[in-house]
């Protein structure tokens, strides 16, 4: 393996390495999208969003995304900072599922369960760049092969990050199975801290989640199959309130799939609003997916990130729009199975403001 390590802050970083499934070496680079006061950087390793710079109410720019200074950080990462995760995001109970009479065993990379696609899911592969316009958008592409981490069939996957206007970021995740039915559930695993990535915890952030139900989980964070109301529980964020206001009533913190109000499909539904009082920054999120995983980085402990910042528990929040976790094993959950000839489409839209 030949490698050349440069800072993520450099506009282009080259890291040459030979991959198991490629006869030729591929380049790892970083890319930057800029429009107005919004600036976002990415790497084609894991299609990761490595930084996002936003102005506060006084015009001061801060990076509001947790991450690392080098690609090696992402290669050794266990937090999935900023990555596209899949082929199936979240968890598959007992690392297996049945499809059309056949049992498929996936990689059990979290105890007996599969998390975010397995040991080498989409967050740990090198994507190619199909299109890149620095003032507009970038499209990453990955060809997932039959049997990868135990999943059936070849699948072509694309992710496009696009700047809209001067304060919006759209994320479009697409996938097409080529020869076998297969489950597909992609997610963007960005950790947000609207004060700044190195400012401490997010417990004083206010959040509103437009979702009146959750899918409860067991002690291994595998859904029980129930869909429960949040009424009267610490999970109720239908009205905005501080994340830390009732977090101590939960074991560890928030790590649960919310059932977004309304009907999932082609139309985007408003999903969440996050605000931070010191800077005045606000982030709004829309999606076409049925669920959103709200995670408060409960398992993060002394992760050394950008600029030698040390990220601790509750250092960031994730809003991972998605299909329901472990839906392959729960017939009452919306199906994630996509057949050849059909397409998977997952859209997220972020709007950033500061007042």
UniProtKB/TrEMBL annotation:
One of its GO terms (molecular function) is aldose 1-epimerase activity. It is an enzyme of class 5 (isomerase). It catalyses: alpha-D-glucose = beta-D-glucose. The active site is at 189 (proton donor), 320 (proton acceptor). Keywords: Carbohydrate metabolism, Isomerase, Signal. Residues 1-25 form the signal peptide. The keyword Signal applies. One of its GO terms (biological process) is galactose catabolic process via UDP-galactose, Leloir pathway. Pathway: Carbohydrate metabolism; hexose metabolism. InterPro entries: Aldose_1-epimerase (IPR015443), Aldose_1/G6P_1-epimerase (IPR008183), Gal_mutarotase_sf_dom (IPR011013), Galactose_mutarotase-like (IPR047215), GH-type_carb-bd (IPR014718). Its EC number is 5.1.3.3. Beta-D-galactose binds at residues 90-91, 189-191, 255. Belongs to the aldose epimerase family. This is Aldose 1-epimerase. The lineage of its organism: Eukaryota, Viridiplantae, Streptophyta, Embryophyta, Tracheophyta.
């Amino acid at each position: 393996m030949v490698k050349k390590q440069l800072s993520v802050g450099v506009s282009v970083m080259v890291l040459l390495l030979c991959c198991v499934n490629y006869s030729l070496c591929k380049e790892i680079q970083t890319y930057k999208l800029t429009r107005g006061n919004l600036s976002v950087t990415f790497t084609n390793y894991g299609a990761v969003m490595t930084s996002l710079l936003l102005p506060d109410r006084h015009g001061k720019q801060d990076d509001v995304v947790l991450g690392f200074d080098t690609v090696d950080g992402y290669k050794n990462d266990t937090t999935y900072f900023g990555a596209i995760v899949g082929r199936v995001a979240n968890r598959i109970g007992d690392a297996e599922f049945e499809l059309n009479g056949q049992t498929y065993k996936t990689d059990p990379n979290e105890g007996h369960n599969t998390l975010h696609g397995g040991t080498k899911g989409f967050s740990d592969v090198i994507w190619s760049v199909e299109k890149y316009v620095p003032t507009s958008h970038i499209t990453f592409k990955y060809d997932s092969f039959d049997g990868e981490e135990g999943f059936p069939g070849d699948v072509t996957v694309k992710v496009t990050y696009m700047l809209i206007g001067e304060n919006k970021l759209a994320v479009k995740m697409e996938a097409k199975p080529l020869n076998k039915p297969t489950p597909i559930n992609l997610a963007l695993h960005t950790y947000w801290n609207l004060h700044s990535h190195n400012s401490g915890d997010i417990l004083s952030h206010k959040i509103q989640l437009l979702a009146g139900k959750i899918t409860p989980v067991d002690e291994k964070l595998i859904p029980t199959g129930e869909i429960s109301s949040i009424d009267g529980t610490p999970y109720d964020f239908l009205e905005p309130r501080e994340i830390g206001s009732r977090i101590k009533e939960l074991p560890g913190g928030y790590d649960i799939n919310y059932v977004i109000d309304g009907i999932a499909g082609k139309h985007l539904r408003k999903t969440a609003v996050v605000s931070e009082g010191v800077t005045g920054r606000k982030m709004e999120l829309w999606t076409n997916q049925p669920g959103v995983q709200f995670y408060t980085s409960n398992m993060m402990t002394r992760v050394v990130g950008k600029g030698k910042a040390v990220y601790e528990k509750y250092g960031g929040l994730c809003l991972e729009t998605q299909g329901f976790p472990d839906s392959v094993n729960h017939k009452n959950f919306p199906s994630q199975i996509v057949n050849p000839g059909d397409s998977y489409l997952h859209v997220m839209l972020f709007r950033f403001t500061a007042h």
